[in-house]
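Forum: Protein Structure Q&A
Topic: Joint prediction for protein chains with partners

I've read a bunch of threads here and the consensus seems to be that you should model interacting components together rather than docking separate models afterwards. I'd like to see that in practice. Below is the full input, 1264 residues plus whatever partners are listed. Could one of the regulars post the assembled result?
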Amino acid sequence: MSNSLGHEVAHLGHVELFTPRPQESLDFFVRVLGLTENGTDGDSVYLRTWDDYEHHSLKLTAAATSGVGRTALRASSPEALARRVAAIEARGLGVGWTDGDTGVGPTYLFRDPDGHEMELYWETEWYQPPEHLRPALKNQAQAYPGRGVGVRRLDHVNYLAQSAESNGRFVYDTLGGRVTEQIMLDTGVISAQWTHFGQKSYDLVYTDDWTGSSGRLHHIAFATDTREDILRAADIALENEVFIETGPHKHAIQQTFFLYLYEPGGNRIELCNPTGRLIFAPDWEPVTWTQAERAKGQAWGLKTIESFHTHGTPPV
Amino acid sequence: MSNSLGHEVAHLGHVELFTPRPQESLDFFVRVLGLTENGTDGDSVYLRTWDDYEHHSLKLTAAATSGVGRTALRASSPEALARRVAAIEARGLGVGWTDGDTGVGPTYLFRDPDGHEMELYWETEWYQPPEHLRPALKNQAQAYPGRGVGVRRLDHVNYLAQSAESNGRFVYDTLGGRVTEQIMLDTGVISAQWTHFGQKSYDLVYTDDWTGSSGRLHHIAFATDTREDILRAADIALENEVFIETGPHKHAIQQTFFLYLYEPGGNRIELCNPTGRLIFAPDWEPVTWTQAERAKGQAWGLKTIESFHTHGTPPV
Amino acid sequence: MSNSLGHEVAHLGHVELFTPRPQESLDFFVRVLGLTENGTDGDSVYLRTWDDYEHHSLKLTAAATSGVGRTALRASSPEALARRVAAIEARGLGVGWTDGDTGVGPTYLFRDPDGHEMELYWETEWYQPPEHLRPALKNQAQAYPGRGVGVRRLDHVNYLAQSAESNGRFVYDTLGGRVTEQIMLDTGVISAQWTHFGQKSYDLVYTDDWTGSSGRLHHIAFATDTREDILRAADIALENEVFIETGPHKHAIQQTFFLYLYEPGGNRIELCNPTGRLIFAPDWEPVTWTQAERAKGQAWGLKTIESFHTHGTPPV
Amino acid sequence: MSNSLGHEVAHLGHVELFTPRPQESLDFFVRVLGLTENGTDGDSVYLRTWDDYEHHSLKLTAAATSGVGRTALRASSPEALARRVAAIEARGLGVGWTDGDTGVGPTYLFRDPDGHEMELYWETEWYQPPEHLRPALKNQAQAYPGRGVGVRRLDHVNYLAQSAESNGRFVYDTLGGRVTEQIMLDTGVISAQWTHFGQKSYDLVYTDDWTGSSGRLHHIAFATDTREDILRAADIALENEVFIETGPHKHAIQQTFFLYLYEPGGNRIELCNPTGRLIFAPDWEPVTWTQAERAKGQAWGLKTIESFHTHGTPPV
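Posted by a regular:
Agreed with the consensus. Here's the joint model:
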């Protein structure tokens, strides 16, 4: 679906995750997934994947319960930032400017129609690794840590929302994203929508929340370099008593090779590998999956796990 | 390097390759690499990778000698096409409009400063696979062929040019691309430049031609899904007596996992896998490699093969 | 479990499979799995994997129904052959000597306690590939075919039997194999037993037949070089409308990475990769899995598929 | 090459390595390769790979210089041990019985013709992991450590010797091993010989020492689960400033996928993956590679690195 707005948002920057078990969640992200700490702020710890050029990929915040905090998107230019802020304000979803969290400059806060907190920024601090994390190759942000899964990047956020479609439309109309795939129920309702800003086939995903709640999270995802990393991750999860919800397997939608875990705070974490898939067509028409097609399960026949439709965070 | 032009070119569309041994070259692309024939035109055969949404990825043309023919780029929109044509004409490198080759609409022909033939188009025919090539998953262009290497897409073109830098600047200034990496000799000369249009870290590459000739080719590259596909490709090449020039190994520049072959017509073909690397920063500063850094060889220490600096097509 | 008989049987040689749909089964083995035809005999076609040093790995025989025919084991030496024949005769399970099928010398026919046909031989014809199948590396039996899955070897046979344990005991007592793993029901019944002859962790497996029948087959398995080959095989199966029963996933028992398919004749075919696992200890004690442990499913949590306990061949 | 002695030696047990830089070597084996400490003895540290069922795989001993200490082989049975001791004594290479090092019972010391220290034993202590190293799957010796390369097992030892052939013959005649591959110079001299005891295609290798010295080491090797582990290991080596001598690539001989590193003490360490290759034939004839064939380099064309013929330990 061509979007005349072009590429106003460059990419997903970072996301905040709430956890009621901050120490165990931190251990999960650092030791099991292989992220690196990069400072703290009050009850939050900043964590980064090794290929992130910015300050952090994840802000892990101790809280009473689980769920997703603010999602940060980087604009493509100062002008794009100004244009998107105007569009968000026109849409009545703006919150206002702040000085910006650690690592980013002036930041505009807003909410998606479902109420998830979001922010847009242009200025960002390029990560300067300390000596012991300096990479051997200068075209890489940080040394590859031979620790745990070793995820490369924060890949996407999959939100639960009262209406997937109206939130997907907000990404399209107001943020300039495009829809690559979606699920349409027999009733005609679009119950899930995958949107992207660049050539990765999705960045922000909306799924209808079966509880009718607002502002919840289905999962956040980290990408690995290879499918073998995902298989290895399954062994690492097994040895570390991390709950494996489903996978490894290949999604029919988007064809992503996946593994779903629950981090100790209860949030669902996907480890994903796109295996080379990118969307190049600027006029890509959304692929629509019917209820009957969804009933066939995942790409190689695995039934979609029940808990995909019963577990979200925070619990309700 | 931010480019205020934004994403005017969406992606590399297809490329034409000349071969003095058309039957053997065809066999190489179909049986060894796993491309699929999709029609002919005079002395040319159209070939496609399984994940190409357009008519073809490669036009293989019987000719007196080897080398690269026309490279086709798809514009991001009709407006972007018009803007780029105006810019090319202003630069004095335009050739003019044609009706377009099989599978594409109105096409604007031009040359890069070094004289390589190029074309820009917006209208394109989305590929409709015949029954026996219909994919099992509807978000895929064509059934995955379990034949040979099974490359996913045409990935990039690496041109030889009298001046890599002036051609890279043309991509930047006139086509709206961006430079991600480059080599700078001790003399200050930029001897190679990698440019891209989207999030893949390169699409068009220019390398100084040691012979001082114009319009020649260093290589064209096809991407595989995995590094294992590249290792398997090396065995397939070995069994089929395809000349392996170097690899498999990992480039320091761009960190691509690579294997270089010569197809029967003499053209160098790279099989490449980026292993998850994408460029997200809209203001990425080119990474500049010095002569001393280049002297260290590839990422894991393999010396850069001599023939990289002696073999180009057509031979001179 | 140490076996004072030592290594009397060297390895699984080949197996015969019955199919009511011979042409489609042949297409499956040749085009989808990548085996190579090596002659015919009446209603049978001989097929070989590329790393088999003998004449064939599989004898595919047209028949009224599906199921397993004769399984051939190669003895470790002429003396071992003589000793095993004597032991089989003493056990009352011998049938007698024949001249041997294509590719093997004098062959002793017998049955396991459940009635599955078996044979033992020493003399064998080393495979001499024709010119077009000559491998590039001389330490390999045949050129690697870049076709379909490209399985490396016949890996194991998993039989259904009225009593897994009494058949496993026969392998141990009479053939000199050893038990590496087994399942013990809460009743104390050993309902499945994995036996091996060398360092591979299993070669012949017996599983209790839920129908109480004799002589049936659970599956035969072919090994691939890598886990990536299994993932790729799943895509190939998908595109070729081959029924995927379960997987890819990792077995808890034996830790094999697996994919189960049904070939067109109805027989279950496993594609397996041991990922480096070998059994070195000559006094390995069988690992016994309880019913409760089995209830946990496969290694990464996949539930064992129901049809594992309802589908065997021939159907009853 | 059939060996009527059968399988008298079950497998390579462990090896001792000398290092003049014990702390850095220890860090290399634990943090970079992912081995686990299992006790100390004087100047030695015992280290184990995660799939070793015995006490240790490697004994790392502080010493004035580098090189290989004692290599331990486990006999297939108490009777095989007695028979091999008698044969070694008859050959005049015996040293005598000791109580055995940590983890093994009565041990017979001897030397190969070149003077490398060796030992044979039957009794061994099965490894009992402490709570924090208990594996999730009960058919595995120790939890898989998500640390560094994570090598699965000690794979083989490659010795330098004054005469490869006379030492290979000792393995064949006296220890009951078999020769799988060898190099024959144009002079008729066998300059390297690969021998094995089970189905792995090699366990002990002898290479002619260009210095004419005795008792030296070419390398010891650890096996990984996958080729991807080797590629990942190259990145880990790169980031940890471990010297990469050559690879990753595929050997023509034995077809092993390899990466060669120098540990901080100067010893060459191979990381290897056989990619499914096993030797099943009990009468396998040695594959002999000529000087001309060797001159072609490795499987995919990489030239054999010069330092393979100049670097051994200890230095002379």
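The mean pLDDT of chain D is 97.
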